[in-house]
Known about the structure:
The protein has about 180 residues and is mostly helical. The chain folds into two domains: about 1-55, no CATH class; about 65-175. The chain has five helices and two strands, in the order E-E-H-H-H-H-H. The protein has a two-stranded antiparallel ribbon. A hairpin with a 6-residue loop joins strand 1 (about 25) and strand 2 (about 35). Helix 1 (about 65-70) packs antiparallel against helix 4 and helix 3 packs antiparallel against helix 4 (about 115-140). The radius of gyration is 26 Å and the shape is elongated.
Amino acid sequence: xxxxxxAPVRAVRPETGDRSGVPTWVCPACExxxxxxxxxxxxxxxxxxxxxxxxxxxxxxxxxxxxRWSLLLPGLGHWMVGHRLDxxxxxxxxxxxxxxxxxxxxxxxxxxxxxxxxxxxLYAVSAxxxxxxxxxxxxxxxxxxxxxxxxxTLLWASVVLVVASVxxxxxxxxxxxxxx
Length: 180
């Protein structure tokens, strides 16, 4: 029995230019074929790494449900809508700020915060703001709108909070370090 002859394999996309034998990658944005050595698309500038990026998962959820999830725990609404990383960041940031408020309140005897009052206020305002803005943002994302506070802004706000905390704690502890 003779074996059937196999048809020659053809490239899915025709080569552009003379790339004979050089491996290529196809840009996910403009579909331009680029040499494998190129770290960005020669036409639109899309990075090679974009080929491996997962598409942002968008889950259809009722906006009021996303708001309620976020009121239960800031970031949970983002998680339910499909913005997992942003949701986790908000959960961690809220746990940190709210946890600090609780610890400061519990460690002060007699109800007076004393010199830690400023630090308490900084973290209390941060926790309350994060709580409210996360709920609003979860609702906005569920409706397809842009959030009030995007991930990058949240990251920089966290950095500012850390720096302000360190500076404030340093200023508050200086009198004790000087012996007074």
